[in-house]
Amino acid sequence: MASPLIANLDSSNFESSIKSSQKPVLVDFWATWCGPCKQLGPVLDQLAEEMKESAKIAKVDVDTNRDLVQQLGVTSIPALFLFKNGEVVDKMVGARPKGDIAAFIKKHI
Fold first, then answer.
1. Of 31, 34, 93, 102, which is the active-site residue?
2. Backbone φ and ψ of 42, nearest 5°
3. Is 28 a catalytic residue?
4. What whole-number percentage of the chain has pLDDT above 90?
5. Of these residues, 27, 37, 47, 58, which one is catalytic?
6. Is the CA virtual torsion 79, 109, 45, 101 positive or negative?
7. Per the omega criterion (within 30 degrees of 0), is the bond before 36 cis?
8. Per-residue confidence (pLDDT) for residue 101, from 0 to 100
9. Which domains does the chain have, with CATH numbers?
10. Which of 9, 22, 68, 90 would you call most buried, defined as having the most Cβ atoms within 10 angstroms of its Cβ?
11. pTM of the full predicted structure?
12. Active site includes 51?
């Protein structure tokens, strides 16, 4: 079960959600058929709870949002893009341990 703290973004709400956030936003580009993406899910749920005061976490399904995938140049999944002030400030590709992802976020807070 996905955390209610994780927003599901699509083409209609992506830009407004990213640009309106006062906190950094970690966006997970994923797909239902992606094994490593499924492994990352519980890690992101935990981080969403632990970091809710300092960062937001969101997900974008690459199969239903191909325009966003193309616009942002996502070539492999899972892909974690970190947005700050509406702009991409960092990227991480592949499933990583929780500590790595937390450090990835914290360096931009």
1. 34
2. -65, -35
3. no
4. 94
5. 37
6. positive
7. no
8. 96
9. 6-106 (3.40.30.10)
10. 9
11. 0.95
12. no
